[in-house]
Design goal:
6% strand, alpha+beta, Glutathione S-transferase Yfyf (Class Pi), Chain A, domain 2, four-stranded mixed sheet
């Protein structure tokens, strides 16, 4: 059965973490909001027109009669189905915990350009965004990305993966983090590869995977832009800490 992915048209955003998993697995899916009247169909689910199990916001995934919302929850559901997580419960729970930590980090990325309110434009909170970005780059990037780099080092399999000895959905999400940070903060990420060598190697390995390589070259892969989570505002970038 074809999976239905619901996310805002024209944005990578949080939906991209799910797209990468579906693309890597070669799964049959439809990016619904990019189809005719797809956004309206998405909003019908959010407004509860199809039942009580309405999602709060996209992304959400429809698999038959089942609706799964929130990125980490979707990937926790898809992982076993797409063979993108180890079989044992301990590894699956650890992978889910890593993905939840990625969710926390994504919120902080978003807050670099909207530190006060999502209802206001970036231009209305530019000075606050500068201060938030400075702290984010100095403290939060090393804390989060450094943690993920150490997880790869600590993996007893020495496989170069954060979980188990083969690629999982966590690898794909870390690839997206690395790509997004380079887009949003190219100056600040100048030393990324030397500061976080395990993440850099993982990023490059994911990009070489046949299905991901083909996806990145296709029209299905939306470009980073200043309406998504990772936004490049030169005023917020800075030299490496």
């Amino acid at each position: 059965m074809t999976y239905e992915l619901y996310y805002w048209n024209g944005l990578q955003g949080r939906g991209e973490f799910v797209r990468l998993a579906l693309e890597e697995a070669g799964a049959d899916y439809v990016d619904v909001a990019r189809t005719d009247r797809g956004t309206g169909k998405m909003m019908d689910y959010i407004h509860g027109k199809h039942g009580y199990d309405m999602p709060f916001a996209p992304p959400f995934l429809k698999d038959g009669d089942l609706i799964v919302s929130h990125v980490a929850n979707i990937l926790h559901y898809l992982g076993p189905k797409l063979d993108l997580v180890p079989e044992d419960e301990k590894s699956r729970l650890f992978a889910h915990g890593l993905q939840l930590t990625i969710t926390d980090f994504i919120t902080e990325v978003h807050d670099t350009h909207h530190p006060i309110s999502t209802a206001d434009y970036y231009e209305d909170q530019r000075q606050e965004a500068k201060a938030r970005s400075k702290a984010f780059l100095k403290h939060r990037v090393p804390k989060f990305i450094g943690y993920f780099d150490r997880v790869i080092t600590a993996n007893p399999t020495k496989s170069g993966h954060p979980v188990g000895d083969v690629l999982s959905y966590v690898d794909l999400s870390l690839f997206q983090l690395a790509e997004g940070l380079h887009y949003a903060f190219p100056r600040a990420m100048k030393n990324f590869d030397s500061d976080y060598p395990n993440i850099a190697k993982l990023r490059d390995a994911v990009a070489r995977r046949p299905n991901i390589k083909a996806y990145l070259k296709s029209k299905r892969r939306l470009a980073f832009n200043e309406s998504g989570i990772f936004r490049h505002y030169p005023d917020l970038d800075q030299d490496p800490v």
